[in-house]
Amino acid sequence: MNHAVSVPLQRQEITVKMRPWVKVEIVRRIASLFLYKSLQPVFFVVVAMWMVQVADFIIPLNFNEFGLRPRMLQGLIGIGLMPFLHAGFGHLLSNTVPLAILLGLTVTTRHQPWHFVMAIVLGNGILLWLFGRNAIHVGASGLVFGLIAYLITVGIREKQLKSLLIAILVGFFFGTTLLFGVVPTFRSAVSWDGHLCGAISGVLVALVGTGVSPQPSRR
Question: What's the 3-state SS for 123-154?
Answer without folding.
Answer: HHHHHHHHHCCCCCECCCHHHHHHHHHHHHHH
